[in-house]
Structure formats: C-alpha cells, structure tokens
Description:
about 150 residues
Amino acid sequence: MNLSNLKPAEGSTKTRKRIGRGPGSGLGGTSTRGHKGAKSRSGYKKKIGFEGGQMPLQRRVPKFGFKNINRVEYKAINLETLQALAEAKKLEKIGIETLVEAGFISENQLVKILGKGAISAKLEVEAHAFSKSAEAAIVAVGGTVVKL
C-alpha cells in the first residue's frame, strides 16, 4: 500500500447534483424548482415567521399587558436580614459594599430595605430606598437612614 492507491471507502462519497446545466443532465429546465411562484424565482427570501399565507403565530396569539420602560427594579432586603448580618459581623454601619461582600446583592443592583422582622441593633443603614415601616423601625432603635 502506498499513497498512489489510496481511495475513499465504498459509498462514502457522492457526486454533487449539477442543477441547471441543460436538458441532457436531467436537471435542466426548471432546475428542480417547479413552475412559477416566488420560490421558483431568483432572489426569493422567505420572511421570518411566514407560514405560507396562513395567519402567523405572532399575529394569532393575543397580546395583553404593558411593560413600563421607566420601572426601577430594587432588590428587597428585610430588617431581619440586616439584624442577622450585624450580629454575625458585629457591624454598626451597613452599606452597599457590606451587602455585596455578604452575597445578598451584586454590585449594580439597587437596594430597598423592607420592614419585615425586628431590629434591635443601632445601625447606620445606606440604601437606595426604604419602606416607611423599615425607616421608622431603624430610627426607633436609634439608628440612622441614609438614602443614596
């Protein structure tokens, strides 16, 4: 055996269909495209979602609702979470950096403190927003609220 007598395995290669090369090829004339219609013509491109004239899915499905483009999404953190964090790490000030380090939020998230749970530690809390009950509870125990 040498390089001159190597050839592909039996049945592993096929000859390409040479379409539109005259009537003698058997694939001339309409070149396997049939007669007339958009698909038979050059430059045909089907629109995305086109279903052959049937009402397309994106028009059959009912539309409803409304997405407010000005909505501000906050990550909610409760008072009980702040209390647990303050006890665990012996903190007097809880800011965004503290919450990121503790793994409660990612760096680019906005934070809103909510009033679920009790708080007993005197804390200085920094956040983007506070619920009225959370703000009242923090101030009641002698803490301070800083809105960013």
